[in-house]
Amino acid sequence: MFAFFVLFFFFFFQAEDGIRDAQESRGLGDVYKRQVSTQSTGNRKPSSMPTLRLSLVAGLAICLFQLQSASSECITATGVDDGSNGALDSGTLNLPGDVLPAILPLLPVGEYETPIQFRLIQHFSLVVFSGLAAFHPTSLDHFADVDQSNARRRCALSPANLTLWELQQDLAVAYGLYFAAAKLFPSNVAFVLNTTAVTWGLEAGFDRCQDAADCADLSTPWGLAYNLAEKMAVFAARDGWNADGTLSRTYNRRPFQDFRDRPYTPRNTPWKLKHARRWQPLLEDNGKGYMVHQEHVVPHAGHTGRGIFMSDQEHCSFKAPRPNIDYDTENDNVLARAAALDDTKKMQVELFDGKIGSILPLLFQWYVRTTGKKLSGYEFQKIDCAINNILYESTMAVWREKIRHDRVRPPSRIRHDMEGETVTSYAGPFQGIQTDVPAEDWEPYIRTMPHAEYPSASSCLCEAFAEYMRLETGADDFPTMPQFPGVPGPSFLAHAVLAGSSTVEPGQTPAADLTFAFFNWSQISHVCGQSRLDGGMHYEAAVPAGADLCRGIAAKVKASFDALESGNRPAHVVDFKHQDPEFKQDRCKTRRRRNVH
What is the mean pLDDT of residues 325-346? Predict the structure, then answer.
């Protein structure tokens, strides 16, 4: 039973294991996909909610009913009843017990480079959180739009209609994810989602809106979701990432291309490390004969990208100090750590390679074990959406500093400094540790990502996550949680790794099943950062610098979501309706480095 439970948290995201096109498609919800085993997936007649969840929902519904019964500032939720007048028949629907983890595996977020993944999940969270805010007595939507939030707010159903009330929320989440996917991904994703929806009793799938007029009624789940997805799309077009390529080209557009008048250009060519401290594009291949030299991924994101709850002044206040690196000593340390790789370290490197597939499943595990509630409710989505916003804001902060410092990666420097020498180190997949590795042949354990080395984005993101969870729970150590059956001891979060499940050395690593046990949030942050050193992707200074850089972002975003829940506007909210979509000026307006031209 222990093994079965922790297997849900087996990781699926790998952000650095090869050229993106060579990877198998991995959707965002792969990290949720076994979560369904903790909730009912059967027909919702009768309700299969656990007793605890039912009592909590009942208490909330009674509270909402009392709060809203005396108020006229709400609308009656429609669209789901006995199937008459174009409404869905609640008696024929067969939604899973938790719709979020049922849909998310179908979304190909993992096909994108790491920083873009956090942009995507932030935009999905925007729609889901705002949709559930419409069922909350006070919460504002993601953009703190008071008028629109009140215009969407549902009148709570009586306690006797709890199942219908929950069904309305689940449909709002499901339609929200569908419409958001239709905006953010190619049409084939929408086709897959529609096919899934038919199995849930939605005969026409999610495709109820041929145009805006078909979804103009905000009282329906699809009308609510369509409205929020449209609002998200407006922000996505103005968030400064150039996601559709329209800011850089009129025709034959290149999504996410650096569109500035003076785009980033590396100081070094792929063939010569002329500037020994500066980033150098590395050679990659897909194992099928195609080879390519790297382009720095979204170098503009930290300069032109816009968040929601942090002003330009706040964003620009997060800075990493100039590193002082003794590369001779550090090269030896990198090689020594790679020579000390064992199965545990290898799988920790792979685990924390994808933050969405590591820290977020640990979050889901913590929530399910401490509350017994599902992931598609407002309470969890407030936490999840806050974390996604924190990761998004942190990504932009660390990306700005990567470009500002423009530091070289270990493979470039080791090949340059130790040319002609042989070293003792990890020699590549299935090769183990060898004593005669030519320095020119040396590679880290996993893919070296196409962006500058300093500071570490991984340590930044993991520490920002840990900081939020310490603030949210009021402690670093985990609270008392139901223990895994047959495993006594203090409360911990677990991540299971099956024998042979490595994506770098499949079938061989690890030699036996492993279980990583985490006892506090700081340990998660520490192991995450250390794994970047063990894998050979970073020099030592980058890891603490990344963690230090992003401390403080969580507190700002958490305060914003607390304000939203209480119906108040946060201290800062982006005015995306009026911001300049051209973004020709960097947020921090600092003097450009010579390599940005």
Answer: 98
In SS3 terms, 464-491 reads as HHHHHHHHHHCCCECCCCCCCCCCCCCC
Taking phi over 0 as left and psi of -120 to 50 as alpha, with beta for the rest, 551 belongs to: beta
Tens-digit pLDDT profile for residues 459-502: 999 999 999 999 999 999 988 787 665 555 678 899 999 999 99
Q: Which of 57-66, 82-91, 440-449, 490-499 is least confident?
A: 57-66
Rounded CA gap, 589 and 389, in Å? Answer: 23
> What Å distances lie between residue 36 and 100, 126, 376, 484, CA to CA?
9, 23, 11, 18
**Terminal-residue alpha carbon distance, the chain:** 58
On whether the CB atoms of residues 199 and 94 are closer than 8 A, the answer is yes
Cα(522)–Cα(362) distance, integer angstroms: 13
Quote the CA–CA distance of 315 and 142 in Å, as a whole number: 19
Distance from C-alpha of 311 to C-alpha of 571, rounded to nearest angstrom:
9
Helix, strand, coil % over all residues of the chain, rounded to 5: 45, 5, 45
Q: For the segment 177-219, what is each residue's pLDDT rounded down to a tens digit? A: 999 999 998 778 888 898 899 999 887 788 887 677 778 899 9
- Asked if pLDDT for residue 568 goes beyond 60, the answer is yes
> Could you tell me how many residues make up the chain?
597
3-class SS of residue 412: helix
Q: Are 286 and 21 a contacting pair, CB within 8 Å?
A: yes
Region of poorest pLDDT, from 49-58, 200-209, 309-318, 418-427: 49-58
Contacts (Cβ under 8 Å, ≥6 apart) of 147: none
Query: Distance from CA of residue 485 to its chain's centroid?
Result: 30
SS3 state of residue 207: coil
3 state DSSP class of 296: coil
Strand-pair category, 88-89 with 80-81: parallel
Min mean pLDDT across 39-53, 396-410, 412-426 is at: 39-53
SS3 58: helix
Beta bridge partners of 477: 520
Give dist(CA 154, CA 215) in Å, integer: 17
**Enclosing H/E stretch for 393:** helix 378-405
pLDDT at 584: 53
Please state, as a whole number, how many other Cβ atoms lie within 10 Å of the Cβ of residue 10: 18
Q: And the tokens for 111?
A: 């096909």
pLDDT at 509 over 90: yes
Q: What's the token pair of residue 393?
A: 């804001």
Q: What type of residue is 68? A: Q
Residue with tokens 């382009």: 295
> Is residue 304 a contact partner of residue 583, using CB atoms and an 8 Å limit?
yes
Quote the DSSP letter at residue 171.
H
What does the radius of gyration of the chain's CA atoms come to, in whole angstroms? Answer: 24
- Cβ atoms of 570 and 144 closer than 8 Å: yes
Instruction: Output the pTM of the full model.
Output: 0.87
Element of type H or E holding 434: strand 433-438
Helices (H), 106-258: 114-133, 146-152, 162-184, 187-199, 221-237
